[in-house]
Amino acid sequence: MSALATITVGALAEQAGVDIATIRSYERLGLICKPRPAAGRLLLYRTADIGRVTFIRRAKDLGFSTEAIRELLGFTGKAPHTCGEVHEVAARHLADIRRRREELARLEKVLAPLVAACPQKGSATDCPILNSLSHAA
After folding, report:
1. What is the pLDDT, as a whole number, of residue 137?
2. Where along the chain do its domains lie?
């Protein structure tokens, strides 16, 4: 299939494993180019967009931000980029994941005992969870 070949939004969505709303969202975010108008009201995408949309979907599945995805997509162009540049983006994301995991662990240590102490009966005004939230730590 030629890189200049075109497909409809439905075909693009199906082949990239996303729905049409996702394609439109990627357009609004500037991650993929808007389609070309064709005969009638038909809009056509390049078949090369299948790979791009798949790339974006997989990066989103890994939790990369839109800005990081935009940065990674920039490395796929013709300009000379290094694997080290890609590594830097991925390493920043990994560090962020690790920070968030540590924060979630801290929250769990505080919340788990509150949930365990809640009798789940009686008045909400006597609930240890609400009482704990109402008092300064």
Report:
1. 63
2. 1-64, 82-137
Picking from 103, 101, 131, 136, the residue whose alpha carbon sits closest to that of residue 118 is 131
Short-list 122, 106, 24, 17, CA closest to 61: 17
110-122 exposure pattern, b = at least 16 Cβ within 10 A, e = fewer? eeeeeeeeeeeee
Phi, then psi, of 29 in degrees rounded to 5? -80, -5
How high is the pLDDT of residue 2? 54
CATH code of the region 1-64: 1.10.1660.10
Distance of alpha carbon 13 from alpha carbon 44, whole angstroms: 12
Amino acid at position 132, single letter: S
pTM: 0.80
